[in-house]
Amino acid sequence: MKIEMVDLRGQYLHIQSEINEAMQEVLASAAFINGSQVKEFSRNLALYNGIKHVVTCGNGTDALQIAFMALGLKPGDEVIVPVHTYVATAEVIALLRLVPVFVDCDEDHFTIDVNQIEDKITPRTRAIAPVHLYGQCADMEPLLEIARRNHLFVVEDTAQAIGATYAFSDGTRRRAGCMGTIGATSFFPSKNLGCYGDGGALFVDDDALAERVRMIANHGQRVKYHHDVIGCNSRLDTLQAAILNVKLKYLDRYTEARQQAAARYDELLKDVAGIILPKRTENSTHVFHQYTIRVLNHRRDALKAYLAEQGIPSMIYYPVPLHLQKAYIQEGKGIGTFPVAERLSEEVLSLPMHTELTLEMQEFIAERIRCFVEK
Question: Apex CA 81: angle with CA 96 and CA 235, to 5°?
Fold first, then answer.
């Protein structure tokens, strides 16, 4: 029994004929750039998300960069961002000569601690960039209210939570990435909706802003060779769009499979000492891009090594908080500045999570974890 962290081959084999047919259509048409499948996928994903515009691009990092470019932020403007996340969220902010302002995370759910945001707002603050981490949404209702009161943009990083829904107090529900000013996502192969290469997209409801996003992603041009704004070259190729069109039909089924796997982990690990299982928020569904436990008593690294010896992969997302990364060190923001993120960086461990995970695999993983804890 071989256990994969992400079983892309197994997933492919279930939809092999549909994927191959979709790819053959692109090959036969030879429309490898901006083929009809790109527009079709954009329409289908917009319908799925209940949003007016989906603008595809080259990858998730490009999506974030294009989002901030489209908002017209100026060098020196500040963007509030969680300190416990992948570097891309802060990377594009710094790349555009904006200033990332870090905020600690919610210890229970790992997303940005909304209660700390207002204390970080200054006259130079222009935006908040919440990250929907590991598969569930940040607490968006109070975050959006803070943004409204302070006239701030909200750029959602939803690379890990596509398909998740957030419930507002008035009963309305919105998809992850479709609540703020702009949403940005990635179609990296291991994502819940992943292609077979690189890919990304932006979610926008405002017509004028969507048009600006399209222009920026296409060298700043609306009409070929007429460049109205400074842009970049970032696009989803037609083969990847064709693949995503097929996989989008299965996204809800994939989500259900991940949620069932998470429920099995919960049951198998519920009484294991020294382990904290992932908690769910009341307002958001969880699509389990990762199933991330916390290992207490400074035993995380030893457990990871033990699992590897048993043929069980695991991953640490993320071992170094952003404020301690060499590229993002700020004066007076050393060890102890963000205690929750620093503690989590020493405790979090993500177990295998994918659509092909079986009960037999999970029982073996849980038995090995139990064996380690009890020895």
Answer: 50
The answer to whether residue 330 scores a pLDDT higher than 90 is no
Tell me the two tokens of residue 367.
């038995």
d(CA 142, CA 103): 15
Whether residue 279 is predicted with pLDDT greater than 80 in this model: the reply is yes
Assigned CATH topology for domain 251-374: Aspartate Aminotransferase, domain 1 (3.90.1150)
Q: Give the pLDDT confidence score for residue 138 in this predicted structure.
A: 98
Is the pLDDT at 219 greater than 80, yes or no? Answer: yes
Name the nearest CA neighbour of 191 among 71, 338, 59, 280. 59
pTM: 0.96
Strands 53-57 and 200-204: antiparallel
Q: Which tokens in the block code for residue 319?
A: 């071992």
Right CATH for 8-103+111-248 from 3.40.50.10780, 3.30.300.130, 3.40.640.10, 3.10.20.30: 3.40.640.10
